[in-house]
Amino acid sequence: MRGYGIAILLSLLVATAWAQIATDLPFELKVLDEKQAPLIGATVELLSGNSPTPLQMAVSDERGLINFTLKANTTYSLKIRYVGYTELITELKPETVSTQKLSLNLQPDSKTLEGVTVSGRKALIQRLQGKTIVNVDASVTNAGTTVLEVLEKSPGVMVDRNGGLSLMGKTGVLVMIDDKPTYLGGAELTNLLSGMSSTQVDQIELITNPSAKYDASGNAGIINIKTKKNKQKGFNGTLTTSYGQGYYPKSNNSLAFNYRNRRFNSYLTYSSNFNRNYTRLYALREYFNQNDQLESRLDQPTLLVNQSFNNTLKTGFDYYLSDKTTLGLGLTGITNRRKGSGNARVAWETPLGQIDSSIATQSSSSGWFKSGGFNVYGKHNFSKTQQLSIDFDWLKYDIDNSQLFLNSFLAAGGYNEGARGYLPSLLEIASIKVDYSWQINDNGKWEAGYKNSNIDTDNTADYEIGNGANWYQDYGKTNRFLYKENIHALYSSYEQKLDRLSFQVGLRYERTNYDAHQLGNVERPDSAFSRKYAGFFPSGYLSYQLDSSNVLTLTAGRRLDRPAFQHLNPFVNILNKYTYERGNPFFQPQYTWNLELSHQYKDFLTTAVSYGIIRNYFSQLFLSEGEDILIYTRGNVGKMYNLGLSVAANFSPAKWWSFNGQVIFNQKTFNGFQGNDYRSSVAQLNFSINNQFQLGKVYSGEISGAYTTRSRNDIQELVYDSGQLSFGVSRPVLKKQGTLKLSVRDLLHTRIMEGLTDFPDAEEYFIIHWDTRVVNLAFSYRFGKPLKSARRNGGAASDEMERVGN
Fold first, then answer.
1. Domains of the chain, earliest start first
2. pTM (2 d.p.)
3. How large a percentage of the chain has pLDDT more than 70?
């Protein structure tokens, strides 16, 4: 009898368990805006009965999706919130739960004040798993700016004096445009971003812990610049123009439109950007003898005036071959003409500051940056759970730079000498990528893919020396550098969501081969070098929802940075008579392990602590050549240890005021060798804040700012504190079809770069001022006839709601 009792008891337990499993249903919720576009970062609370305490709380992903596990024959309530949209509370009845899928639309938050409608808008900053999203148009002070200027005041982003980017206090950032690497670095990347208008950009994604799907490059993470591509049905367009006045004038203009019907979507965006500006540089270099006694000083004030004119065209189409298959073609073209002039007066001084000799330098430069490329893609859904996409990209950069330096010795019987260079560069990239995803169940997803990219570059440095009238070939600096690189990559990742626990594990393998050839001349023989290396790059996260308001997440990953091909090229670039820049053919990749533990409290507060170790650390190096020539180069110097702590808050102190702020602390320690054993460390803080205000009935305003304390990215250079403050105001016009924005950037003109560089047997104090205080007036106008969808209400889900987005 006892055995029968146990058997009966076990049978009851199994039956109960199966009944429990049978009543637990996976449920997918899709949150859309009024234009049927997914809302990323919408907060959804799942409630039962009259209880105010949520059973579950989640945030919508990039597709606007949230997955729950619900019990059949149970009634729930959903509370959905998103900044700028009316809160939606709706009942979830058993018959809707049984369908296992629902789409809901949020409507813009509109309040009628004496006949004037004030509409909500996207939040400026959104924070998702491993990603911070900057909605560019949500900031008034972004009007009339370039992409580089938007990045300068994005949370956690810093720009150094050479245009190099760092993220969360760490250098080595992979910059992508529409999920595709730019393959540029240094000055050329700076020129691309400073010539790109912010009106072209929809969002900037700051990804500190990329998954295995992304390239392994970028030890600090990825900055992904997502340009605007409207897919709204009907004919739609936006015209934007702006004028800015700093010390010199600036202008940004763009035109974007699209047309979409049931099967076809076409788009075109054109922008032009004119920018005239100055750079005022002062440097005081001091030379010491072997006993550390001051021997001489070099006083170098310099004024550079530059102007650029940029044109960008992007067009393409998407063709929906069937409900399962989409084909597309995209074309991009960029031209950027630059020219500049400079005046410098270099004085050699005795240790007591008495002028020993002086040299005046007149310089000029010009550049023509041309880029063209196309993308062909296809996407096929084998089923509701399986998808395959193929991308082929071809991109070519054609860059022509030239420079001229004329030096005059300011003394009786003085001399004239000069140097001029022509530096053309060709860069061609071809890549193919295949990605497969399988939604194994409503809470599990597997992804895998392959990517192959080929890079082919041809760089020439053609230098001459003379006295301004007669010129002779300078074979010591002249060269031609050919570089070919091939990268193969494979990845696989799996993501799973359980009741309170979610995780992702991924592994990426990359193999790199490159061949470099420096052609010789009559004074120097040919030289060539090759390198092959490969590695595995694991990544993943583990997230646990403590309760309806608190989530803990642990992320980890290994990444690398490859030297930019420009930095491998050993040719010389003249900065001035006593300072050169030179590449390093022995430059090796750097490898990084990153670990981060974060806590999120609702969408109000996010805190994180991180630790990173970088081996073969990339640093700018400063070498002596001869008695008075100093060389800037880059190379590997050892290790860098980074301990980081960040706090980000997003809240509304009042109905008319929303605040977003972030504080980042980094403790950096550098250990390396470059002629000497270098040990340096720095504790640095970076603050960024943004305040958005509703001013009266129709006006909205903004006050934003950023500040960084003393910082260090290079082992031999310390940068002093700096910051900037900006404000702006906007209002709708022309029956809300248009918008006027007036802004002032860097109001106090404190966006400067000041620091101290440690050379072998020398040190240099420098301070750089730019034309950053700018008053800007921008106007945008929206036109077209969209195909409007039926307005949804906030009541119980209807059949019509459930068809949206399916």
1. 2-100 (2.60.40.10), 125-786 (2.40.170.20)
2. 0.79
3. 90
